Amino acid sequence: MSAQAKKSPLRASQGTGRTTTLRAIPAEPDQAEVRQATAQDYATHLRASNNKHGRPYTEKTVTAYTKAVRALDQWISREGMEEDFTSVDTATLNLFFRAYYESHNQGGTNTVQRNLRPFFTWMEEEHDMTNPYRDKKLQRYAPPKAGKPQTLSADFVTDLLKVTGNGHPRVREFEKLRDHAIMRVLTEGLRAEELLTLRLDSLDLSQGLAQVVPLKDARSTGEGRVIPLQPRTVIALTRYLRAREPHKMSKGQDLWLGTRNRSRLTYSGLYRMLNRRAQEAGYEGCHPHQFRHTATDDMLSAGMSGEDVMTIQGWKDPTMLRRYAADMAVSRAVKAARKMGDRY
């Protein structure tokens, strides 16, 4: 008697008659597959957990942490090591960090070392392994010494605004109106991620205010800080919101939408946009964070107190104020002294 064919337990795909097959799980997975599965479990853990401030991890943080794990995994594969993450000890990590340092730089090595720490804390708790970060023999890579922040010139900011229409009421192009509004908001001193996470309900244009949710509780108190907007920033936002209405994604709360009816603007999109507009204006380019440096100098030059600047920028530690103010400190001091005129 011939064996009867077994029926598939899977639902057939509609309209095609074909069935969907499940991915086969190896009976004896190799160590590379075990490491990849561990990395996936770790990413799931991060997305289901809160950070030390009691907030969910942002997707940017999850990406950074899992990228460090993938870098370690790829290095283990290149070295031909037959081990999973539970076998990674202090000596192995020291070899990895030295190799990473030689192909990157000190800043990059410091970053990947910091981003791997939570992974091995999780491995210690989840897999009962010895955490190499608790070993004093682990070689530490210090962060590079921070350079002096660079402040953008007034001519550069003015020219950048010009290539996006300079806020002219006759401009009707969505992309120009959006880019112009973004640059105006950047001059208020927001971090790039703070700008990108702005929502429609973050704005109170009738009062000329925007509420920025802090990226970390240590940077600000409460559920956000209030940013006073310049009058031209309010106008630019008002015109952009009108141009935003026909957009395919306009029903969502994300403030900055992509061109060609694409969804929210990303950091890479912001960076590319700024550099493209800078080149159109005849400059090499710029970084979004340079606008924050410039806003700090603008506020201090206008006579705003250091305490008020710290409140606007979301700083608790005056060290950040001193660092951001360093670039144009001499220029501000000279101008202040000259305003006094003849003293005797």
Main beta sheet strand tally, sense and closure: 3 strands, antiparallel
Mean pLDDT: 85
Q: What name is given to the CATH topology of the domain at 159-287?
A: hpI Integrase, Chain A
Q: What gyration radius follows from the Cα positions, in whole Å?
A: 26 Å
Terminal CA distance reads 119 Å
Q: Work out the oligomeric state of the chains in this entry.
A: single chain
Unreliable stretches covering 5 or more consecutive residues: 12-25, 217-222
- At CATH level 2, the architecture of the domain at 159-287 is Orthogonal Bundle
**% residues in beta strands:** under 5%
Order of helices and strands: HHHHHHHEEEHHHHHH
Strand order of the largest sheet: 1-2-3
Percentage of residues assigned to helices:
40-55%
Number of helices: 13
